[in-house]
């Protein structure tokens, strides 16, 4: 996986550790530089992640689904569910969640938020989530 670096000193592992677990590397960069990294990475981000068998996507989708299933049994929860994916990137996770809900009677409105307009352009090609 080779995400670009705004200043040539951030590698893929740094980006992933930082974004997934909120630690170091990218968090030390300025917001503008982070945006540059994600703008440049947006083109290959999803395929890079898929090529590297990133397990967090299916795990997260399954966990989100489990929470929604539990909540669905509570009568005082308004429907459809409203989910906000902060730092949604290309929206791949939203696609997995949406697919998981298809065989159920649970409906959800998914909104993606991201500071990279380039990532949001990729998201716009999907019909599962609005931004
Ligand atoms: C590693 S990607 C993960 C994308 C998506 N959540 C996924 O699982 O594929 C991190 C995303 O968070 C976005 N991001 C990082 N910092 C952000 C911030 N401060 N505000 C909004 N979006 C941010 C990036 O643009 C990028 O799309």
From TrEMBL:
Methyltransferase domain sequence ranges: 64-126
Domain of life, source organism: Eukaryota
SUPFAM superfamilies referenced in this protein's UniProt entry, alphabetically: S-adenosyl-L-methionine-dependent methyltransferases (SSF53335)
Any one Pfam family match given in the protein's UniProt record, by short name: Methyltransf_32
Database matches in Gene3D superfamilies: Vaccinia Virus protein VP39
Protein name from the UniProt record: Methyltransferase domain-containing protein
Organism the protein comes from: Gracilariopsis chorda
